[in-house]
Amino acid sequence: MKPIKSKDGTVEFLWNVEPHVKLPFIAAEEDTGPIVKELVANEEAEKNIIAYREYLSGQELALCFEKATGLKAKSVNLPRGSFSVPLPDELKAFGEFGYESWEDLSIIHPQDLKSPPSLDTVENYFKKQDLSMIFRT
């Protein structure tokens, strides 16, 4: 999800799920290696992991961005059907059931690993980004 800058300079994160719904955020280039290493080295077979550094709502994501960059940011909840990328039907249940809407005991989270990797925050990830690349047209 790429944020956009409004005419007044506010950075907007566009969502198509209810504002309270939290989604997993990962910096794949930084987090995947340590998570997979621990999963393979220290966990029994048949475990599945939801790899992420933080679960955040749109509002929390915007706040992380604001703290990291000093730019005013907000989450914008778009009406269903108006998002530029169509969402699969499964995602329509996020508001009612959350991201994990199934009972699968094989699913674990990074903090559930026997030796959880130390992952950075989304805020710190934003601090490392080149904003000129994010907002170039």
From TrEMBL:
Record Pfam families: NmrA
InterPro entries: NAD(P)-bd_dom_sf, NmrA-like
NmrA-like domain boundaries: 7-84
Domain of life: Eukaryota
Protein name: NmrA-like domain-containing protein
